[in-house]
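chain below, 153 aa
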Amino acid sequence: MERLTISLDNQLSDQFDAFIHARGYTNRSEAMRDLIREQLEASRLEKEESGHCVATLSYIYNHHESDLATRVTSVQHDHHELTLSSMHVHMDHDNCLEVVILRGTIKSVKDFANLVMATRGVRHGSLHMVPVEIRQEQHSTTSFPHSHSNPLT
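prediction:
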């Protein structure tokens, strides 16, 4: 493991300590590692669309809106190769929250998320992506090939 030393002025150090305490970190090193990972991932996702990612897409919609649930489900079926899992939560009488776990190319995941979030009636949409390396494997104990997703940071 590489050891880095940084110098911070007192005000920045105090703000950083308050930040890591509020987030529940027990030490500065782990907080710095997470901040570095977050920035590396954001930079990679800005530059690349050909790489792969795993992602969560969450959005809220009013299930009373005409045909909205059917339209969103249809979009998911049209892109079934991206969807690993989904969860549907009834928030109240009118609103539903859906969370979809996705895996695919960065471009295809972004395009799918934009398509869902741009659907009339969908609101509060959010996409979170983590760049990964995808490896195809077939173990001797299984009779079918399968994928492994390994985070890049």
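The longest helix spans residues 28-47. Strands lie at 52-62, 83-90, 95-105, 122-137, 146-151.
thats it, cya
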